[in-house]
Amino acid sequence: MDWQSEVTEQGVTERAFTLEVGEEAVPGIVWTPADRPVRATVLIGHGGTQHKRTPGVLSLARRLVRHLDYASVAIDAPGHGERREGAEERVLPNQLRARVAAMSPEQMEAAAKRNAGAVGEWKATLDAVEKSVGINGPFGYWGVSMGTGIGLPFVASESRIAAAVFGLMGVGPRVGSERLAEAARKVTIPVLFLFQWDDELMEREQGLALYDAFGSAEKTMHINPGGHIEMPPFERDAVEAFFGRHLGRPAG
Amino acid sequence: MDWQSEVTEQGVTERAFTLEVGEEAVPGIVWTPADRPVRATVLIGHGGTQHKRTPGVLSLARRLVRHLDYASVAIDAPGHGERREGAEERVLPNQLRARVAAMSPEQMEAAAKRNAGAVGEWKATLDAVEKSVGINGPFGYWGVSMGTGIGLPFVASESRIAAAVFGLMGVGPRVGSERLAEAARKVTIPVLFLFQWDDELMEREQGLALYDAFGSAEKTMHINPGGHIEMPPFERDAVEAFFGRHLGRPAG
User: Fold this and answer.
1) Do B222 and A221 touch (CB under 8 A)?
2) Is A252 among the domain residues?
3) Is this complex's ipTM strictly greater than 0.95?
4) Which of A135, A216, B37, B145 is deepest in the core (most CB within 10 A)?
5) Is residue A226 part of a domain?
6) Is residue B252 part of a domain?
7) Closest chain A residue to B223 measured between Cα atoms?
8) How high is the mean pLDDT in each 10-residue block of chain B (252 residues)?
9) Alpha helices for chain A (secondary structure H)
10) Total domain count for chain A?
11) Domain carrying residue A209
């Protein structure tokens, strides 16, 4: 783990790092409480076209540190953030569906392969966090949309993760669906599955099918109206309550 | 409102009352903080075969008082609790489905009519609580299963209720379903809808259809595995968070 920078504000220490994984240099961030021991750690997987410090990731990371004394860890997914070639892409909500629909089978296959490769990067990150930061769990995972596409196979193959939040994803007649359903069946840890009832990218039946597929005895699905990027802010409270229940919370 | 008894324990004052509504004497209970002002009030509708002080109602009522400084109010539904003729009924979980399946169309119709009559009793209770207890809102409603069967038409026709929790109910090819769906379409306040994915009494599609029917801009459905009476205890945390968000919560 090669540390790049460190800054502390409002009780949260943010440290940027680069981790060599095979031929890839994976950039990431660790957020920790500035002056309290780490109670648990949540790995945060961003969505497609986003990056490790996208506003939603940053606010969740800081919130977990401040409210629960957790550490948060995020990395850039392959082809995203600092690993992106070319200018940053800005996709408007109403373009999401057309953008995904316009992908060729070859592009879909390439994306699925890229996501599969990212599983090893998360494992290496977890190893490094344990070794270099001295954090020994418990660990949780949070990632919706592409964060589920990458995170679900990761969590299914990783016994160190004790609780996971997924969402904005489904299984059906699409490339990579069977692999995702297979991963879901292997997951037995508690799961919170967040879904948007009017998601432009995912049929309701596909979301319900993925919820069904999870092998976990404790799995809760939260459904809200609205599109892919319109999840209500109060679901962040639910995420915090979920992790607090399974990874621990401050007394009182 | 005719007060019957009063007892205070662990910060919660519990007062039993009887309210004359037409020809009916409706027995109820009001729980309030023993030594703090009332922040908001939640009306609690019990389920079929239960009563106003059934363990689930009692624990929710006390919890809302202790954690949120709310008042809680419960009444016996028609034919339930002190209004029941004959010995108390004890229905085992695995008998639920057979029991409902064995109901004749006439019995279903009678139950639906009885539930419709209960709407007026809740309105009278709310009037009395405002007048005699001096509580002026905001008001919420909580009721699943029969508590939704009665509470949904009540809430749909009652502008004083600001947020409601429903659940364990659906709409489909059953007596009373159209009336329930019609009521749901009229509801525009925030709704939390709790559903059990393996409910012996309700098809998944029926639950999803009722969620769909709500006219509310904010409506969240929580789905968990398990049968009609197996809702996970942590959904009580979600109920508390929901009411806290809409009816107010203590600072800090």
Assistant:
1) yes
2) no
3) no
4) B145
5) yes
6) no
7) A221
8) 94 97 95 96 95 96 97 96 79 73 82 87 96 88 96 97 97 84 97 97 96 98 96 97 97 78
9) 55-68, 96-101, 105-128, 146-156, 177-186, 204-213, 235-247
10) 1
11) 2-247
